[in-house]
């Protein structure tokens, strides 16, 4: 008994040593800068010493320009995620239940953006859909009117985000679809279930967690994204990523830039909390079963 306890204690100490370095890195590179940023936005040093102040947050939530940038960020994120899931879920389901050359081509096309840098995608977007781009030249050669380019409009970053995040979303959803067995689908068909009944009562309930995971990853990446909003989006209103950079570099107001960063972090933390909570609930259900 004493030998077994000693072995368990040794394994526990080894496990703690293994996770010590990653935890120290997270605490040093992530947690501590967050704490410092919050402190810098709340603590003001004056002639009478340091004092607690919410002035920077009051300015943000009462400033029309700041709130406009926050609203366009939320709008862009919500629209991008909605379109992305509407495209990624059918592709993942198709790749799960269909085999052959066509499915292989579809999978290759869906995964291809994963290997292309975001800045290359942005400039390809400009050359294809921008003013005097490839689409305009093709339409002009046939005497057709030009399209209204989404370049430098709120729809520009949406198109870029959907294209860039499609591979990761498809991969995560395909991993979740591995829980949907062919036997379950065939049994539903045997009792007369149609395609939509199988989709809503068998497939979606079993991949709901994967949809939540994919949505969380996409939201966390989009909300503070910089490349696509900076290159493809309008100058005003602009998403929080370019807004923070302009506030820090052009306006030279580091306190307000940190305030914007803290607000962005808090909104992303809400999505992270929902994700962690859902994972914990799912694990508890599995252990109880």
Quick overview:
The chain has 289 residues and is mostly helical. The protein folds into two domains: 1-53, no CATH class; 64-288, Orthogonal Bundle (MetI-like fold).
Could you please describe the fold and organization of this structure?
This protein has 289 residues and is mostly helical. It has two domains: 1-53, no CATH class; 64-288, Orthogonal Bundle (MetI-like fold). It has twelve helices and two strands, in the order H-E-E-H-H-H-H-H-H-H-H-H-H-H. A hairpin with a 2-residue loop joins strand 1 and strand 2. Helix 3 packs across helix 9, helix 7 crosses helix 9 (195-223) and helix 8 packs antiparallel against helix 9 (195-223). The model has no long low-confidence stretch (mean pLDDT 84).
The class by helix and strand makeup works out as mainly alpha
CATH class of the largest domain: Mainly Alpha
CATH superfamily of the largest domain: MetI-like
State the strand order across the main sheet: 1-2
Strand percent estimate: under 5%
Helical segment tally? 12
Question: Span between N and C termini?
Answer: 30 Å
CATH architecture of the largest domain, please? Answer: Orthogonal Bundle
Amount of helix: over 70%
Rounded radius of gyration (Å):
24 Å
* Global morphology: flat
């Amino acid at each position: 008994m004493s030998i077994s306890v000693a072995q368990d204690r040794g394994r526990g100490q080894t496990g703690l040593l293994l996770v010590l370095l990653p935890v120290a890195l997270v605490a040093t590179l992530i947690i501590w800068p967050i704490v410092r940023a919050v402190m810098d936005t709340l603590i003001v040093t004056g002639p009478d010493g340091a004092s607690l102040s919410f002035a920077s947050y009051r300015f943000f939530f009462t400033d029309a320009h700041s709130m406009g940038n926050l609203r366009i960020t939320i709008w862009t994120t919500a629209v991008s995620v909605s379109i992305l899931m509407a495209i990624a879920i059918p592709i993942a389901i198709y790749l799960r239940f269909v085999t052959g050359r066509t499915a292989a081509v579809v999978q290759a096309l869906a995964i291809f953006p994963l290997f292309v840098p975001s800045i290359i995608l942005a400039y390809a977007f400009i050359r294809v859909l921008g003013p005097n781009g490839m689409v305009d030249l093709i339409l002009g050669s046939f005497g057709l009117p030009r399209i209204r380019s989404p370049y430098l409009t709120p729809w520009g970053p949406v198109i870029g985000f959907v294209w860039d995040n499609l591979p990761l979303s498809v991969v995560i959803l395909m991993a979740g679809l591995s829980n949907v067995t062919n036997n379950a689908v065939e049994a539903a068909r045997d009792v007369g279930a149609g395609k939509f009944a199988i989709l809503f009562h068998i497939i979606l309930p079993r991949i709901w967690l994967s949809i939540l995971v994919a949505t969380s990853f996409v939201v966390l990446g989009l909300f503070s994204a910089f490349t696509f909003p900076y290159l493809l989006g309008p100058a005003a209103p602009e998403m929080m990523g370019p807004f923070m950079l302009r506030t820090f570099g052009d306006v030279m107001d580091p306190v307000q830039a940190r305030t914007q960063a803290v607000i962005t972090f808090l909104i992303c933390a809400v999505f992270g909390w929902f994700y962690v909570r859902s994972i914990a609930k799912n694990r508890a259900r599995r252990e109880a079963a």
